[in-house]
Request: fold
Amino acid sequence: MTHKRVAFALLLFLIAIFAGYIDYYHQMLENLTDILANGGGRVAFALIICASGILMIAYPKAFNIKYSPRFSQTTETIMTPKLWRVIGYILTLILFGLFEVIKNP
Reply:
């Protein structure tokens, strides 16, 4: 339950960033619109993949059932929900790292 609350807080923080309520990321928003206007589809894809880390934090069992590789004989999942949660936190850190890179090109 704690991880769902953390994911919800991160989601609200992302909404506040993209709505322009956080002054620290104001320059990042201007640079991001310039990048996307000049054909930055790869940047958009990277941001979406990293933002999906928030869903991995909130719902690791769903990612484990749907996306985890399986053994061929037993169809047992190789990755655990805890590992998906760790991957979600890592992707979230990468997301905020990308925000810093976009903010100061």
Notes: The chain has a mean pLDDT of 88.
